[in-house]
Amino acid sequence: MNQGVTVQLLVLATFIATFYISANIYRKTGEFSARKFEGLAKMEEAIGRATEMGKPVHWSYGMGAFDAQYLAAFVLLEYAAGLCAKYDTRLIVSIALPEVVPMTEEVVRKAYIEQGKVESMQPEDVRFWGGSHNPAMIGTISREQVAGNFMIGSLFHESILSIEAAARYNAIQVMGTSNTHQLPFIAAGCDAIFIGAEMFAAAAQLDATPVRVGSVRAPDLITSVFVVLMVVGALMVTMGNTTLKTLIMR
Amino acid sequence: MTFIKTKLPVVVTFVGAFIIIAQYYFDIPAWKTLAAELLRWNVILAAFALALGIGGIVKLHWGRIARRAPTALYSAATLITLAFFLAIGLAQTTRGESYRWLYDYIYLPVAATSYATTFFFITSAAYRAFRIKNSYAAVLMVSAVLMMLQIGIFAAFLPIAPRIAAWVWNIPTSAGMRAVVIGGALSLVGNSFRVIVGLERGHLGGGE
Amino acid sequence: MSATLGIWLAAFLTLGLFSWMYKENPWFRLVEHVYVGAALGHLAVTGYQNVLDIAWKPATQQGKYLMWVPLFMGVLLFSRWSRKYMWVSRSSIGFLVGTLAAVSMTNAIRAQLLSQVAATMMPLDSINNIIFFAVTASATVYFIFTLQQKWAAPIMDLGKYGMMIAFGATFGNTVMSRISLFTGRLQFLLFEWLKLGN
Amino acid sequence: MALIRKLSNIDVRILYLIMVIAAIYPLLRPIGLPLPISDRARDAYAAIEALQPGDLVFFGIDYSPTQEAEMWPQTLAVGHHLARRGVRIVMLNMIEGAFRYEERMRDIILAEYPEYKYGENIIALPFTAGREAAFQSVVADFKGLYTYDLAGNPVGSLPLWNEIRGASDFKMYVELADAPDWWLRPMSQVPGLQLWNGTVASGASTMAPLYQSGQMIGFIIGMVGAAEYEFLVGKPGMAAAAMDTQSMGHVLIILFVVLGNIGYQAIKADESRAKAKRAARGDV
Hints:
The structure holds 4 protein chains of 4 kinds. By secondary structure, chain A is an alpha/beta fold. Chain A folds into 2 domains: 6-32 and 208-248, no CATH class; 38-206, Rossmann fold. Helices cover 58% and strands 11% of the residues of chain A. In chain A, strands 3-2-1-4-5-6 form a 6-stranded parallel β-sheet, sandwiched between helices. In chain A, strand 5 (172-177), helix 7 (183-189) and strand 6 form a beta-alpha-beta unit. Chain A is elongated and about 65 Å long. The model of chain A has no long low-confidence stretch (mean pLDDT 94). By secondary structure, chain B is an all-alpha fold. Helices cover 80% and strands 0% of the residues of chain B. Chain B is extended and about 70 Å long. Chain B starts with a helix and ends in a 12-residue tail after the last helix. Chain C is mostly helical. Chain C folds into 3 domains: 1-63, no CATH class; 78-121; 124-198, no CATH class. In chain C, 77% of the residues lie in helices and 0% in strands. Chain C has helices at 2-18, 26-61, 68-77, 90-120, 127-142, 152-193. The longest helix of chain C has 42 residues, at 152-193. Chain C is extended and about 65 Å long. The chains are: A alpha/beta, B mainly alpha, C mainly alpha, D alpha/beta. At the B-C interface, helix 1, helix 2, helix 3, helix 4 and helix 5 of B face helix 1, helix 2, helix 3, helix 4 and helix 5 of C.
């Protein structure tokens, strides 16, 4: 054993154990619930308003490379597409990466089939733009005067462009990303946001699988323990006892 | 063959990662040496990977030129620039005089300026995008304005402005970002773990 | 002479990108496409030099035979350029991503989780420390997604406000960054190209 | 009302023009607004000031030209400070676009400080790919990672290189980076190595908690940080000259946000009034 890594190893072991145990529990019981997410409620509100106004809603993943954020985005897209199918509202998807086109088509089709509306799905509304994603997205938002604007994924400065374009039509905007450099902008311009891991939890809530459940439960447990440690540790330090503070770096 | 195509990549991923993790926690001198070697290999593979982007771009722009697309001339500009950099760069590496000229007077100004144009995005977004729609956005904007007032005219007339900005930075900002850092690090642990044990394979790529 | 030519070329490229602010135009698009070529070319050249320095020359000139392994795996990476043979690259990619994941994971637990938790164990004996502690703890609670008790909601909300202050500061700082980057190019145009001022 | 409507409907190109003029004017005719030096910058200065001549220091140059405006003035100011302290400098570079800045800084130190002789008390190492893995490699086996220096000399021919055993010989890591934490995660493993960071303003907030926790001993941020440092080392330069432009820009951006929001609130008020009217007439 190396020096100063005991607690670190304990954290990793707890993480892995919780991951597998909670995934297995879910496999047996099928039970998982998480708190209500403002972003999901706002998405529904946006689609409802779009239906009233007879305007479409717009979806994009941003320009970032394919990573885990896309996996959460697929689930959230399925949720949005399902609502759109239910209310007969158009959903336009702008895509930058070629590799996510087939996945996106599949996700949208699945949502329409589940609502029994497969005939009203418009395949041409899933649009691949590649490198010209940004101008194409701005153009789509303006031409269609969208009433709702969603962007979930690995976002870069295209998030600002999208917010600005949709703000002109007072669209309800919901975005989410783990990229800390964009969080301030989406928080400033949107009606609701998913902050980092929040979108993974929302995805697990919408469509739970053992892996997704484990991926939410494990960090949840570690975070809970950390919060307790912070409180106890701070109280101990306040009373002049630094045992816990030095212990966790052992 | 299926083993090489689908299982081997997962095995390689796991074994490489396991050696590095094990020697981090346990004192095994031989593994330490091995891990240092693996890290060097990682660096070399990463260096190879820097050239990977060329394939897709050449395919895309060559296609446009072949189709005589309306943007073919621009595509030619991309390919010609790329060819120049590659020809001179491969001949004399970055240590050559001509390559430095290319870097100083082409790559540097376009890279710096392309990023500087985000200044315009921020300007128009400030005016048209950042509508204060709820109390969260209101708090955000107040904090943003306080940060921007820490230098210049306001600091000149209101010496307290920089002190307020410093407080906002040192206390609530550092504290709030700490939660974001902790959350982000846990996400990183989760993602890394899923990659290492092969639950996530998106990076391995499609194909047959 | 070649420096003067270079500065005029750099100014031409810089102004081309800035011409976007009037509207999108062929000059802008030309420079944008030059950027793509230059950036990819430069990446490849630095990668090439790196491989030469730390793998190829040691392998061929200094008898470090182990270096042939990464050289071989590196060449396999280029099978990604073919849809049919992409699978050949998978083991190399797996190694690259797996070892990096292992490094980040172990490092993050130490440097960003435990160190940060330990630093939050601060004496609650001043207003500043109490505010700091309350914001960190409540914002951390925000990231416990399966916590659904009623009492937790106001704590999460406090945490969200704390994060909004942090995002606001980031917002302000990013505006600063963008203005700096623009100023940097103006300094080039005014002083190096036009040679105004001193 | 008409005025508010007009103010919330200005062509953005006019705003761009106002911004450009506000940026150029103070560059040519400096106003000389005061720049208060922050405690953070003073502490960062003090940390380097506390280095002893001969201490081994890593000097990481890790930014691409995209962030040159903020990072090169920082590099100059910090580089001069390090050279004045007479420390032994080993320059590193882990970002693809940074080698020219490393070269320039090396040449400036060699030209302006006669006590610095290349290979004896300063070395510049070449770019290494791999990001976090490259830094981890420095921690795991620094001497095994490099074969040549930036100029292509075999590292074995440099006397300073032969004096170094590994990363733990170093006193401080001064990292000037446009990217956040992935350098810190590995480097914080080296026992006794102090970490000192200069970064871009846009990426600084993720580093703020790591500075507060004491994991970094010095921290300067963006062009403002560069300007402060220029004043501290007594060499006001590009960053200091840009401060008036910087503050004019801030004022205008704040003004635009306020204008945009006044317009937004006016439109919202209009809409709800119209809605109330329709409701009163019983249209809904």
